[in-house]
Design a protein that fits this description.
Elements lengths: L4 H27 L6 H13 L4 H5 L11 H9 L3 E6 L2 E9 L1 H24 L5 H12 L3 H18 L1
Antiparallel strand pairs: 1-2
Helix pairs in contact: 1-5, 2-5
Amino acid sequence: MGADPTTAIEQFRYLVLAAQREGNRHLAAALKPLGLTPSQAEVLHVLEDHGPLSLSALGELLVCESGTNPSRLVGRLVDAGLVQRAAASGDARQVQLSLNARGRELATAARQADDNLHDRLRTRLRGADVPALVAALESVVQDTPAGRALARRNLERQGAQLS
């Protein structure tokens, strides 16, 4: 008799959760000397890759925050002197967020922490069919806020590579 499909799905769910927590724990430890959290590092990366952005446009590209208004998260980065707010050209009511020099420095350092985590994952996943794993996880997050944020980021990244 085969394994109970419900048990396999439950195990999958908890394995994804455990993997996410372990990855976040490792990333948080690597970012701690920089004074950043994983969520703050994600904001820096998104602004570095896609900025300047309005607060709502930034929110649409974030996985760490649900919704499209990560104002407290951005506020902490502004207060820390890493992100600057400026009036959008053509519409003074709109605010554009961008990295300042210190924010770019920390984004680069945070990128190294990400790269180290990615190396760890590559080692752990050696021999696994990573494209199949990615496809399976994409189907899980499809049509969710986090899934849409990742899809938008990937589309914008592909568009930038074609330019």
